[in-house]
User: What shape does this take?
Amino acid sequence: MKFNLKIWRQEGPELPGAFRDYTVDNIIPEMSFLEMLDALNEELIRKGEEPVAFDSDCREGICGTCGLVIDGMAHGPKLACTTCEVRMRVFEDGCTITVEPFRAKAFPVIKDLVVDRSAFDRIIGKGGYVSENTGSAPDGNAIPVPKDIAEKAMDSAACIGCGACVAACPNASASLFVSAKISQFALLPQGHAERKSRAQKMVGQMDAEGFGNCSNHAECEAACPKGISIENIARMRAEYMRSLR
Amino acid sequence: MIQATERSILNSKIPAGPMADKWSTFKANCKLVSPANKRKHTIIVVGTGLAGGAAAASLAELGYNVLNFCIQDSPRRAHSVAAQGGINAAKNYQNDGDSVHRLFYDTIKGGDFRAREANVHRLAELSVNIIDQCVAQGVPFAREYGGTLANRSFGGAQVSRTFYARGQTGQQLLLGAYGQLMRQVDAGRVKLFPRREMLDLVQVDGVARGIICRNLVSGEIESYAADAVLVATGGYSTVFFLSTCAVNCNATAIWRCHKRGAYFANPCYTQIHPTCLPLLGESQSKLTLMSESLRNDGRVWVPKTKGDKRPPHEIPEVERDYFLERRYPAFGNLVPRDIASRAAKAICDEGRGVGATGYSVYLDFGDAIKRLGQATIKERYGNLFAMYEEITADDPYHTPMRIYPAPHYTMGGLWVDYNLMSTIPGLHVLGEANFSDHGANRLGASALMQGLSDGYFVIPYTLGDYLASNKLPKVGTDHDAFKQAVAGVKDQTARLLAVKGTKTVRDYHWELGRILWDQVGMGRNAKGLTQAISDIRALREDYWKNVKVGGTGDDLNKSLEFAGRVADFMELGELMARDALERNESCGGHFREEYQTEEGEALRNDKDFCHVAAWEYQGEGAVPVRHQEALSFEAVHLAQRSYK
Assistant: This one.
């Protein structure tokens, strides 16, 4: 297969970026999107040109490192998968593919397709945990959790922190990411002691980082590779309101 | 002042007394650092996976100043995140006869009697605390209807002791540790340094006192000083190029420590995982693991006849060879990984493999779906089935999966004593980066257990003992040792960029991987290993003459990052082959074709090789020195491992 690529190139955070055109040939349908970019970079290195910088790590959809906007869609045209899981067989041979970084004010571009998502870490630092010092835990079965609650909490906990929700949202809101963590601990009994402060501090940090607000577009849910539901956002709002009481 | 230890003598520092009391004895007698003094100590932790993240968080809770480094953009992305199946613990919640002793015994036997007993016993003891800790953190483990914790079975055990969170156990445990870590970062007790790669260890008067890193965004070479250095940077399976590891996993941190004097133990003990997706082509960047938990319900088979090209559903039951069930009736499809992998290789070498290349076997869920229904199978393995379909475009609910072994985990690593300290005083090594607990083969669901045990429960005690027992003079990054190390790192970067040859880093890595896979993979022999050593040496020489690295040294440059890692893999690969050549026996993941039983099982040589091989670096290109730590077995008897 052969493809024309329009790739966003930007040398550094403060420098202007632009699309550049490339062509890749001899691509096999089984290749992943990132393996196609690997092949392009091999070619650029051989020609003495600067390779395209992009982030990736596990290449099996669980670490959340990769994240590209492909043809205007966060993680590409295939639903419920990360960029590294997209296979070239989903594209038509000979087509033109546009590749951009995840764009948001709170995700500044570092270089080319690499962005800084450390805002997510700072939000987690404000309450994305149960304050539980090592060594102080009771027996595991001393805290029973009904199966359906555990399953629901797991649905929320499945978030990989990739930031596709932010990239897909017209407001660049981080509501889906933040609400998934707040939900996990609102559902589980272990999280109840810090319920109020968690909702307030995590939402407060989300605002401070410069993410937008949620206005119910639900683009985030559509882009989420792990199928995290916007039901979590409703739960986050309820938790937040409850914390003000 | 600490005297650099007499390195030719490997003192494992195992506490005296009966096996079951050793850890309690240690804890009762170890020295403590007073709360007021803890904040005066700075500790470097490299890595934020289960071992590193848990250690950084737990040490900060105790009051130490922690500097925590990772190569990823966030600590939550460390490769522990990808572990799927579960974590073992001797809780005996299932009332099926489990106990600390049984988990200890299974782990020793699973490791083919090549692990250190005292470490393994401690691991089995701590396994129960880990589950308690993680539950309290809000890790959403699978539950029974009554609300209690659920378990499943895993290879190498006849009890059900594996705790899990769907097929994402590693992710959930890591996010638990990451949450605790970020709590400490927010509180100012941990300073986090993401996108940093450790490139050298700094010693002052023979004691580990700091590290040199490359800032992967700015390209700056940075120095950090501390009272102790903890390395928890994972394993080295990416040396094979194609492995189940993340593409950034590497051996650079441990290898540079090795070059600075830390012994490297059992480098030839590598684990080839049986249930991975088969290789598709040369453009592939990694191999994908399908959790071993699939072997609970999936049955492994190939056609009985060579070259049978019929699609699987057209092959009648009587013409199928369920070779694991046939060869190992007691354990069936749940034999340990090394045994399952070798059996698959043998069948494919025989010409009975399936798929276009003939290098894969079926993993069939047909019977399980008939017995339990598709809904149950979906609940158990839904995400894995989806992942399989995503990659292969085959639906495993209707067509058997095709699997083949792939490099996965490395049991070898830096040598450590009972306190997790390497042969360099002050340098501690945790998790997969050390060698200590899995012998020659790791059982499923034991890696998460070891990482968390080292990080949450072992290092907080042993590090305190080290700090309280030794007087550490103040050392800053202005010390000459730091300046020299920085110069060395800058020099290597400049040399790599200056070669400007014709072959890319990936070309070399691929070639190295093929040599290792062919000669130092699932089957090894003296001739092949000798050949591998000379081939790798030639490849390494060529590398420094002909490699082409893209970009420059002073900004984000993945090509340069990989170039440094591959340079280290070239040296490590040779050591793996050398270690495999010197170990004239078969044990666990190390299968020397010359040493096998009539049935083709691994044949150990306890008379000559019941020891840990720990290698001492002797300089570039020089032959390293092999030291031994004898393994003695008090609580279990050495026996031939049988799963029949």
